[in-house]
């Protein structure tokens, strides 16, 4: 039996297909492919334009410099890829913790961004988590006031809840209960 008609060959193709498909669920692979496609398209464009020019003509040199620039920028992006992946993971995990109401744990998670040199992003995410925590506390106070029968006090607290927070959407529902 020759190698081309081997009964194992279809299994190898299926294995490779499943492996590639599985890798797409892995964040580093997606980031690598994204960078490769984004930088590969202009690189191929400049390279193909370069191939149509007379060698060492001004346009050929410009295209060559552009190809070199794309390659250098691609290398730079790949060099910082692990840090970007790690920061996105931290932000994703912190966002999940905020959504679960674990604000202090999310703040601790966001503090890890400082080690990656992203202090501004860290401060922004921490301030968002603190705002969400404060809004949630205000919502709980409003619920307690409503349960105690103090509709006016609950209404005043609900009005102070910052818009754009998760608690603000819940406050709208609570506000509808306060309508006479």
TrEMBL record:
Region (Disordered): 142-180
Keyword set, alphabetical order: Membrane, Transmembrane, Transmembrane helix
Tagged with keyword Membrane: yes
Highest taxon listed in the record's lineage: Bacteria
Transmembrane helix is among the record's keywords: yes
Transmembrane segments: 12-28, 35-53, 59-79
Protein name: Uncharacterized
């Amino acid at each position: 039996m020759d190698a081309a008609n081997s009964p194992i060959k279809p299994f190898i193709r299926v294995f490779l297909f499943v492996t590639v498909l599985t890798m797409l669920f892995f964040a580093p692979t997606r980031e690598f492919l994204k960078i490769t496609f984004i930088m590969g398209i202009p690189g191929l464009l400049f390279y193909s334009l370069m191939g149509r020019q007379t060698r060492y003509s001004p346009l050929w040199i410009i295209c060559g410099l552009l190809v070199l620039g794309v390659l250098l920028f691609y290398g730079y992006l790949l060099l910082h890829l692990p840090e970007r992946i790690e920061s996105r993971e931290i932000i994703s995990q912190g966002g999940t913790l905020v959504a679960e109401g674990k604000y202090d744990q999310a703040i601790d998670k966001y503090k890890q961004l400082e080690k990656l040199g992203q202090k501004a992003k860290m401060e922004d995410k921490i301030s968002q988590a603190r705002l969400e925590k404060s809004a949630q506390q205000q919502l709980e106070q409003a619920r307690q006031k409503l349960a105690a029968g103090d509709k006016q006090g609950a209404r005043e607290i609900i009005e102070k809840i910052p818009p754009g927070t998760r608690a603000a959407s819940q406050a709208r529902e609570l506000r509808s209960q306060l309508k006479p």
